[in-house]
Design goal:
Length: about 150
């Protein structure tokens, strides 16, 4: 029988630690942004809209690695909040593109404020050097995975 405790056990792997911490912190972030009637996936879509030119819902699904039907559902909710608008693509009238509205930018700013406050809470016991190293290391991993880093 293989032993899973000790220095080589699953809880000592980066995969387990990052996954578990991500779930816990993701839940805490979700609680904070609930007051804006948003979930983390909504914020992900809003963020994706800031990363480049207007994108069709199909393009966004590919960029986010999710089903197009999820993008439609998220966009429907965000449109009701006034955070995004659907407009016809001038280059292809059959396509609709999502654009971020001023309200969407406000919501993103609010969510960034919430995220920074949560960052401060979860790193309060770290030194400034440790926080900087953590930020740089996670930024490198995010960039390698093709995630936004700015």
């Amino acid at each position: 029988m293989n032993e899973v405790k000790g220095p080589d056990g699953l809880p000592r792997t980066l995969t387990f630690r990052l996954g578990t911490l991500g779930a816990v912190i993701g839940d805490r972030f979700a609680e904070r942004i609930e007051r804006y009637n948003l979930k983390p996936k909504h914020v992900g879509l809003l963020t994706a809209l800031t990363q480049g030119p207007f994108a069709s819902q199909q393009d966004l699904a590919g960029r986010l690695g999710v089903a197009p039907s999820l993008v439609v559902s998220l966009a429907d909710h965000l449109e009701r909040l006034g955070a995004v608008e659907r407009v016809r693509d001038p280059g292809d009238r059959r396509r609709q593109v999502l654009t971020l509205t001023d309200r969407g930018r406000e919501l993103l700013a609010d969510c960034a404020t919430e995220a920074r406050a949560l960052d401060a809470e979860i790193t309060t016991h770290l030194s400034a050097d440790q926080r900087q190293l953590l930020h740089e290391t996670l930024g490198s991993l995010a960039a390698r995975a093709g995630l936004p880093t700015d």
